Amino acid sequence: MGNLGPTELLIIAGVLVLLFGAKKLPEMARGLGRSMRIFKSETAKLREDDYDDRPATVETVTQTPAQPQPAPAQPLQAAPAPSVEEQARQLEEQAAKLRASADKKV
């Protein structure tokens, strides 16, 4: 199923040219390439965020009984992320401000 020969590829290319026209195909390919780059960068950012959210590992150190044990470090509490509704409200406010400033310039 995944093995496409040259004949099948030519048929697919011919159908695409008939459907979209020769002038639109390069534009569509550029748009697809941009979309793929954006998608890859966003997924990479998500992976980095997931990696950054992991708790740091603490190495155990053997100490002699005469030394007091230090108190374990408290994990840092990150501020909770705003909800989707809150983010949407903030974006709408920003859009309204931008529209107002654009209207003043015109």
Automatic annotation (TrEMBL):
Basic and acidic residues bias spans: 42-56, 86-106
Sequence ranges of Low complexity compositional bias: 57-66
InterPro entries given in the database record: TatA/B/E (IPR003369), TatA/E (IPR006312)
Localisation: Cell membrane
Transmembrane helix among keywords: yes
Source organism, top-level taxon: Bacteria
Region (Disordered): 42-106
Predominant location category: membrane
Keywords associated with the record: Cell membrane, Membrane, Protein transport, Translocation, Transmembrane, Transmembrane helix, Transport
Topology versus the membrane: Single-pass membrane protein
Keyword presence, Transmembrane helix: yes
Reported function: Part of the twin-arginine translocation (Tat) system that transports large folded proteins containing a characteristic twin-arginine motif in their signal peptide across membranes. TatA could form the protein-conducting channel of the Tat system.
Subunit structure: The Tat system comprises two distinct complexes: a TatABC complex, containing multiple copies of TatA, TatB and TatC subunits, and a separate TatA complex, containing only TatA subunits. Substrates initially bind to the TatABC complex, which probably triggers association of the separate TatA complex to form the active translocon.
Record family assignment: Belongs to the TatA/E family.
Name of the protein this chain belongs to: Sec-independent protein translocase protein TatA
Organism, as annotated: Nonomuraea guangzhouensis
